[in-house]
Structure formats: C-alpha cells, structure tokens
Amino acid sequence: MSNVLFIWALIFLFILQPDVAHEGAVSGAQLFTHALLPYLLPYIILTQWLLKMPSKQGTSQWSRYIKAYVLGSFGGFPVGAVTVSEMKKNGEISAAESSLLVASCHAPGPMFIIGFVGNELFGSTTSGWKLLIAIHLANIVFFVLAMSLLGSRYQQTAIPTIPQQDHKTSPLLRSIKDSSSVILLVATTVIFFSSLGNVLSHSISSVITVDMGVTKTLLLAVFEMTSGVQSATEHFAGDAMYPMLIAAILSINGMSIHMQVMTIAKSAGIRILPYVIARVWNTLLVPVLFIWIY
C-alpha cells in the first residue's frame, strides 16, 4: 500500500511540475546520448562478442577472475554486471563466484574518470588517475578479503559446465542483439532518475528553506550519478571539499546504476547482497583513499 501511495505521489508531482520533469528528462537524455552511449555501446558489443567466442577449458580459477575484472571493470557501468552474467551463463564461473564478481567488477570507465572528471573537472589527468586507482584498489581489496573469508565455500560450488553454443547465429550478431537490451536499460534508467531527481529537488526547495544547490546535488547523487557530478561542479567547484565530494558521488553510484546492475544480475540468477555490501564499502573507503593519494 505504501508503494502505491508513493507512486501516486510521484505521478502528481510530475503532473504539477511538467516543465521541471521535462528539463530533468532532457538533461538525462543528453547525458546518455553525449556522455554514455558513445563510450558504452562499442565496449559492450566488443565485450559480448569476446565472451561469446569459444573459450579454452581448464583455465585456472584466478585467471577467470582476472578476465572478469579486466573486461568488466574498465568499460564503465554496467559492463561488469553484463560480463559476469555472460560468464555465468557460459559456465565459466559458479553462481556463488558471480555474486562476488558482480560486487567487485564495478567501476566507471577510465575515459570518463581520466578524461571528464580528471581533465575537465579537476583540471588534471593525474588527479583522474589517482581517483581511478582509489576506486579499483577498493574493489580489489573487497574481493580479496571476501574470497579469503568465503573462498573455500565458494570454490566448492564452482562446477563449470559449458552450454551448447548457438551456431545458427554469428557471435557478433548475438552480441549486438544482447547489447541492445542493455543500452535500452541504461537509457531508460538514466532519463527516468534524472527527471525524478530534478522534480524532487525543486519540490523540496519550494517547501523547505534549504540551499537549492545542496538539495539538487544530494538528490541527483542519490538518483543519477552523472547528473549529481554535474550539479556538484555547478555549485561547489573551487571549494576545498569538492574533490572528496566528487569521489563520494562516484562511489554512491546512484539508483540509476544500481537498478541497471540489479536487473542484469537478477536475470542471470545472481545474488545481489554482496553487491550491496560492496557499495557501502566503496562509499566509505574510496573518498578516504582518494584524499590519501591526492
């Protein structure tokens, strides 16, 4: 009942503020078209194509982990979830291993961090590299610690069974087909949560006397990461806390990205609890590591 009331409340907010909702939706669509699609689509297609090629059997456990991390963590969200899900479907990793890998193979793309955040926002590619190192360091430490504590139980459940491949369709065509659903998911969540964050921030600011910049940045950071980064830059660039604020927003990720990952993971039968724990871990650790390295 509470969910129904919440949904109706949001519907009324969208009806009462169509211009604000439209502005947020347009902003989300522009973010997707200009900042996400050009980098995400080619990488997802190539990753899917590579994963659909016949793989060598008998590879070591850690070589499969490295493969998942390299392919999944350097293409941006939600490539990690797509990569791990495909490897689970191929029988390269078990269900238990895939839950830890989805939690760990989760990072923004290097081009976004180094090029956009580092060069354009921080004015230094070196700062972008330091932030990227902090993110990957937190991910790797989480995975190693989790495997150290749960490794024996997780290894026992790993029974790779390579399914029959569909030889009627080429791997490239299948990768393009599978990638289209992922891209549609990303576009839908980015546009929806950008519009939602915009409507809620204006609504709260009109009812409660709070700083619009703080409200908008906080809500957009919770709902859509890239919009939150843009809002933080608009309102807090030049402040001493600005680098740590950007690191925190990138660690929180936002509901848009979480919905993408959870939808992909659920469709492959992957547990999401380790992913939730890892996001709390990264939110607390990445800003501290970044400031320490910075």
TrEMBL record:
Keywords for the protein's UniProt record, in alphabetical order: Membrane, Transmembrane, Transmembrane helix
Transmembrane annotation, as ranges: 31-51, 98-117, 129-150, 182-204, 240-260, 272-293
Protein name as catalogued: Sporulation integral membrane protein YlbJ
Organism: Sporosarcina ureae
Taxonomic path: Bacteria, Bacillati, Bacillota, Bacilli, Bacillales
